[in-house]
Amino acid sequence: QNSLMWFRQDLRVADNPALVAACEYAKQHHSHVRALYIVSPLQWAQHDVAPIQIDYIERHVNLLAQSLAALGIALDVLHLQWFSDIPAALDEYLQQHNIHAVFAGSEPEINERRRDKLLIEQGIPLRLFDQDCVLAAGDVVNLSGDMYKVFTPFAKKWKSVASQKAIIPIAAPAPVAAALAQPEVITFDCVKRSSELWPAGEGAAKRLLDQFLANHVTDYHNERDFPALDGTSRLSPFLALGVISSRQCVAAVLARYPEALVDDTCPAKTWLNELIWREFYRHLLVAFPRLSMAHNFNELGDGIVWRNDLEEFQAWCEGKTGYPIVDAAMRQLNQTGWMHNRLRMVVASFLTKHLLVDWRWGERYFRQQLIDGDLAANNGGWQWSAGTGCDAQPYFRVFNPMTQSSKFDPDASFIKRYIPEIARWPLKDIHEPKSVNLHDLFASSNNQAYPKPIVEHKMARLRAVEVLSALKRG
Ligand code: FAD
Fold first, then answer.
1. The Cα angle at residue 354 between residues 351 and 356, in degrees rounded to 5
2. What is the domain range of residue 323?
3. Ligand 1: lining residues by beta carbon, under 6 Å
4. Residue 421's domain is classified under what CATH number?
5. What is the widest separation between alpha-carbon atoms in the chain?
6. pLDDT below 50 — which residues of the chain?
7. Are residues 379 and 466 in the same domain?
8. With pLDDT > 90 as the criterion, what percentage of the chain qualifies?
9. Complex ipTM
10. Angle in degrees, 0-180, between the axes of helices 341-349 and 375-386, rounded to the nearest 10
């Protein structure tokens, strides 16, 4: 009567209720615990999981195997191309290892939910734990019992429900057996891209959280919009894989600022709100499964006639739009697998509004590049930017890239880092790339041409407002 912990988007031993339950089950039955991770290359490719994120997962699965070995738990890795290959293979695996109970964290995405439902229907003894949010989907609802469609009342209710709960992370389980030998290196048979730029491991995530709370959280509301500053936590790659839980983050905030849930003047309020945005989008994914299927949240969005110009889309992907703030942001994404939140909003607005490219193209490209790719947050962010989403930015609000540039990268230090070929341009021209002569002048002097703007701002703004007025109610 052995038990199995099946790791998915919760690659951690601390604050992992499913893992603790798997250990308790084994203790009660005087049996053993095993652990499993399933690599699904074709399914991941269909989900557009970025090669850099796959590499990051691989590193974390190796670290997890080491932590588990210290607890006396062996981690197995199965390579199964598709989710649909799992039922038969898992059934065989359970029989082979005499496993009578499988423990795992639930996941909000539709294919993952369908996979788990099918497994349970087919008799796999799978027990799911809500551990990807502080409050489970369905626990933050309005008076009619429905999911909120506006963030502010959701956040208010979230805080009120959370303030009545003890938000205390669960410690890693005690060893269940003698420590195992150092596990062999696990290699995924997938397309990968090095994630070495990013630190890995539960310890690294915890240190980052502690440093952020000690040094930055109180200035977060002032600094978080400036990409040249180190003003945000950079915890998203860890949160996306569940290397750290949002409960660990919220508990750490509350340990320093016990008033954070009730006092609007608390210095940690703004950062806490971002963690609540994360939960908002995850709860939405569960309440509205169509979001996982790339449908517009607002069905009026189905009437938008996107331009979808391939060349312009390509220029956007490559950071060659001729708008330095947009291009620097895209180059940050392409080079590091991560992009600052302010810039995600700027480039998403530029693609969907200035170029009128369907938000699904941008969402997909982001997913293919991001180390923190997360369907809920990515879909939420894209639909917010395009105006098609739940509690989205109004369709007629078109970010002005020039204003965004001068306001949020005033000395252009971020832009210059990623577009060195324009570092010698006068500041004004970096922010307002309309003086076409400069392009030729400086291109010839350093031999690296920076493109002219691919679209004129005023015209693009008017065009966007007209086309996106399909979203106008009534
Ligand atoms: P911090 O500012 O320190 O915030 C802490 C945590 O809160 C983040 O790590 C993240 O988990 C969560 N968070 C912050 N802002 C948001 C938000 N707007 N929505 C949901 N959760 C949030 N975030 C992802 O994790 N994965 C994505 O694929 C993703 N795609 C996005 C696409 C677009 C178009 C936009 C506008 C935003 C997207 N975001 C995504 C949200 C946000 O940009 C990142 O979470 C943030 O930049 C991560 O940096 P950080 O860890 O330093 O965040």
1. 65
2. 299-471
3. 224, 232-236, 239-240, 274-275, 277-278, 281, 341, 344-345, 348, 366, 370, 372-374, 377-378, 380-382, 385
4. 1.10.579.10
5. 78
6. 435-436, 444, 447, 474
7. yes
8. 96
9. 0.99
10. 50
